[in-house]
Amino acid sequence: MASEKAFDFVLLGPTGYTGKLCAEHIVQHLPTDLKWALAGRSAGKLEAVAKELRALNPDRIQPEILTVQLTETELKPLAEKTRLIINCVGPYHLYSTPVIIPSLGIESTPPDILTWALVKTIREQLSTGAKEAVSCVHEMKSSGPSGGTLATILTTLETASITDLTKSLNPFALVASEPPKQVPSRPLSELLTGVTCVSDLGTLTTSPSGIADAAVVHRSSTLMREFYSPRFYFRHYVHVRNALVGVAFHYAFVIGILLLTIPPVRWLVNKLIYAPGQGPSKEQCARDRVEYRGVAIPDADTAKPKRALGRLFYEGDMYTLTGVFLAEAAMVILENEAKIKKVSRGGMVTPASLGQEFVDRLDKVGCHIDTRLVDN
């Protein structure tokens, strides 16, 4: 990984809730000879984080401290002196647009990399692509969202235009090539209730991140069109115990979003939530876990095609997992830069475009993906 750049990577925003967790993973798990730096707006806060990191692993090369404002004038020189920026600055909609490669955290890495693994299983064992995949959050035990996550939601609703919000509802908004000409229609019952049933996954309902996850997965599938299939289509949901719970979850989500469009409601919510940079304690998160499940159907016109089943699971909290995703993805990019540029075509990088190297690194740090082929 030799380079003439001053740094292998710069962690931008390490003083925030997720940024600090990412930094801790870096000092405890990544190679100790990496040249890296901590960057942000407050030198004092950066020094405090660096001191905490030094106590975790005093034997590694310590990061340099770089103060930088979130403007193009200061971010451009920062980018020129490093091979890669890990961006943890939030709320993302307000502050991260100049540097962001989106959706490499808990959203939308699990559905994207799990779907890639399902397609890989079909490709290797059946010598064909996949015409459809469905994933769901099967189980999530979480101590709750951080202040940064909640602030991102609120500021997006406050500052995004109706046009931008409408565009964000398009599951093909990020495609890199032509999307499939035909997609499965959703039955009227699902449109009205948000509930559907999928073989092997059970009763499913609307996922708050479903459209965003679909946009990322469809970008991956159109970046690797021949690997997936020109006909490939993806959907994402949340698993629920029964249809009644699914309907309640769906309408609670819809009503909640509508209420948050009302300024006085957002003001009240802001008073009740964690401030940005804060979140659940490690003690509160000790028993957190998450499991995603998915199914993919081969692109084969047979009466009873085989299908691939898979799951991604992790014992720990969602924000630590996001830090893991960011740090391990950075290592994949540093070690496979030419390959990643080729797959991503020099544009937006998705979790799936990091491939098997990413899966292998995640497995070593406790985030596991299992897939298998089954008969109908």
UniProtKB/TrEMBL annotation:
The keyword Cell membrane does not apply. Signal peptide: none annotated. The lineage of its organism: Eukaryota, Fungi, Dikarya, Ascomycota, Pezizomycotina. Belongs to the saccharopine dehydrogenase family. Keywords: Membrane, Transmembrane, Transmembrane helix. The keyword Hydrolase does not apply. This is Saccharopine dehydrogenase NADP binding domain-containing protein. The chain crosses the membrane at residues 243-262. It holds the Pfam family Sacchrp_dh_NADP. Residues 10-93 form the Saccharopine dehydrogenase NADP binding domain.
